[in-house]
Amino acid sequence: MAATRPASPRHRSTPQITIRARTPDDAAGVAALHSLPGYRFGTLRLPHETVDNVRKRIEQTPADAVTLVAVLEDRIVGDIGLTPMAGRRRHSGELGMGVHDGHVGQGIGRAMLAEALAIADDWLDLKRVQLTVYPDNEPALALYRRFGFEEEGRLRMFAFRAGAHVDALVMARLRP
């Protein structure tokens, strides 16, 4: 059962959404999520990811990574991962996330990002959280900016997507 986090000024919950740790039992739901065209378009995922490959990747997740899913009516509608860096970069972490095509703009991304950043701040003491995002992903850019992420640069020809090379933006949120 997922623990309920007390409300704080930076964490607003969406009552119908449960944010919890991802498990190998979530492989089918995560594979279905990653197969959605809009979700995939905003990530580096390839089409037709199998449940077995997703399960293997979940089982091989580094122990220090925080991987969460958003569940709505027993269905996975979002996922987020926060991977702390090592060595001289242990003060920073890398973030990646996505929301179900049919649920964009419903607070799922906000709830997942709030929870991941609360863990980054309150449990891992991360001073820097960074991510990459495609410049045409306006909903994601707006969400990240609301949480204090700022653009730091552009990675030209970052990925091959839908038959074309596309740029990505590097964004980071710094905490003193």
UniProtKB/TrEMBL annotation:
A Pfam match: Acetyltransf_1
Domain annotation N-acetyltransferase: ranges: 17-176
EC number: 2.3.1.-
SUPFAM superfamilies (UniProt xref): Acyl-CoA N-acyltransferases (Nat) (SSF55729)
Keywords attached to this entry: Acyltransferase, Transferase
A molecular-function term among this protein's GO annotations: acyltransferase activity
Record keyword Transferase present: yes
Superkingdom: Bacteria
Name this protein carries in UniProt: Acetyltransferase
Organism annotation: Rhizobium halophytocola
